[in-house]
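Hey, quick one: can you model this chain's 3D structure?
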Amino acid sequence: MPSIVIETTIHAPAELCFDLARDVAAHAESASFSSERIVEPGRMEGLLERGDIVAFEGRHFGIRQRFVARITELDRPIRFVDEMVHGAFRRLRHIHEFEWIGNGTLMRDIIEWQAPFGFIGRLADALFLRRHMAWFVFTKQSVLKQIAECRDKIRTDPDFTSHLS
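Sure thing. Here's the predicted structure for all 165 residues.
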């Protein structure tokens, strides 16, 4: 089964990074480059908890797609897992891990999937799907990193907001 691991170092506490990664609004913001938005069914706002369902709709490969996932594991602030219950893949599991490292947090996303359509799906994997998945997760992590570091700076430096004007 194909998988990718994408790691990003964020200069912010693990608790903040963990909560942002499961915040529905932050997810939508970090995936806005794909026109992704939160849709029914499931949680439409707030922090995802174990057992919650969340649905996103976005454009991938020029096609509007809907992805519905359930949070199957949650151990704050270390790890949570979401698994696809409806979507384009035959199977998809996304593990989110957070590790405190010196002056920040190592955020690790592990994505495991099985493409649909047998041989054709495996061929698509080899030709473009793996590359697209890595780009999508890396880009989302980059935006989440910016959000987390900005929020942490505001939290720890009361004068920071005065520098923004």
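One thing worth noting: Strands lie at 3-10, 37-39, 53-60, 63-75, 79-86, 91-101, 104-114.
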